């Protein structure tokens, strides 16, 4: 299933979310320009579990720096565009409910929690982890709790056909989470590919941390939906 848009309007312009998207795309363009030097760049700034745990005891910068830099690197066009699309769909609403300043902290902490989840499960892995998907999974976890009544216009493959359906956001995100869990359970731990447990760890971290980050409002917050009938007539 692929999301096309959600039904929740943001009350403020998501300039932090937009900035994160722009930075990720610019960094990827820089990666693309590196040519044969890309592998060394990924090795230095991606998060490699073996190197991370070595760095904790010998050179702290080797452990800490990749925790941040790895979430701004990507392995290909589909990787970066897919991640940025999910962030574009869901991130603006979470920023709206968290606040601009706290949103960037929330995003980075989710990315760190996601990377650490994968690293602690596969401490001996020598494969660098890259991508914003762990941090974005944290945004999805927050959205899951903040907007239970939202719906997502979704492209759904049914056999050989593609259908556009409006699906409750909770259904979409539960399906997404279960897919990560199933894939993570049966995926190879050493062959590279997708860091499924980073997605799972990020999602859970986002669900937990959103309680500390969301704004306290004097009245019960109420999302505004595109298809909601007008409350007033003139």
Describe what you observe in this structure.
With 234 residues, this protein is mainly alpha-helical. It has a domain at 11-146 and 192-213: Rhomboid-like (Rhomboid-like fold, Up-down Bundle). The chain is built from nine helices and three strands, in the order E-H-H-H-H-H-H-H-E-E-H-H. The protein has helices at residues 15-34, 38-45, 49-58, 60-69, 77-98, 100-121, 133-146, 169-186, 196-213; strands spanning 2-6, 151-158, 161-168. The protein has a three-stranded antiparallel β-sheet. Strand 2 (151-158) and strand 3 form a beta hairpin. Helix 8 packs across helix 9 (196-213). It is globular. The N and C termini lie far apart (41 Å).
Shape: globular
Taking all Cα atoms into account, the compactness measure Rg is 19 Å
Average pLDDT over all residues = 88
**What is the share of helical residues?**
55-70%
CATH architecture of the domain at 11-146 and 192-213: Up-down Bundle
Brief write-up:
With 234 residues, the protein is mainly α.
Question: Layout of helices and strands, plus pairs?
Answer:
Blueprint: E1 2-6, H1 15-34, H2 38-45, H3 49-58, H4 60-69, H5 77-98, H6 100-121, H7 133-146, E2 151-158, E3 161-168, H8 169-186, H9 196-213
Antiparallel strand pairs: 1-2, 2-3
Question: What key attributes describe this structure?
Answer:
234 residues, 9% strand, Rhomboid-like fold, mainly alpha, 3-stranded antiparallel beta sheet, 3 strands
């Amino acid at each position: 299933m692929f999301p096309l848009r959600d039904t929740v309007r943001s009350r403020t312009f998501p300039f932090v979310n937009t900035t994160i998207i722009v930075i990720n795309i610019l960094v990827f363009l820089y990666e693309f320009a590196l040519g044969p030097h890309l592998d060394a760049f990924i090795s230095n700034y991606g998060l490699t579990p073996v190197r991370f745990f070595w760095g904790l005891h010998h050179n702290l910068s080797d452990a800490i720096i990749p925790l941040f830099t790895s979430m701004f690197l990507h392995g290909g066009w589909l990787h970066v565009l897919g991640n940025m699309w999910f962030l574009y769909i869901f991130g603006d609403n979470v920023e709206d409910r968290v606040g601009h300043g706290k949103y960037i902290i929330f995003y980075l902490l989710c990315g760190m929690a996601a990377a650490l989840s994968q690293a602690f499960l596969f401490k001996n892995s020598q494969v660098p982890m890259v991508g914003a998907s762990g941090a974005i999974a944290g945004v999805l976890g927050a959205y899951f709790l903040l907007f239970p009544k939202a719906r997502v216009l979704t492209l759904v493959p049914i056999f050989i056909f593609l259908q556009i359906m409006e699906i409750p956001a909770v259904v979409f995100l539960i399906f997404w989470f279960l897919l990560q869990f199933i894939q993570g359970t049966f995926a190879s731990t050493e062959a590279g590919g997708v860091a499924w447990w980073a997605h799972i760890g990020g999602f859970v971290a986002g669900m937990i941390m959103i309680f500390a980050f969301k704004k306290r409002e004097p009245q019960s917050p109420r999302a505004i939906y595109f298809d909601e009938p007008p409350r007033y007539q003139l």
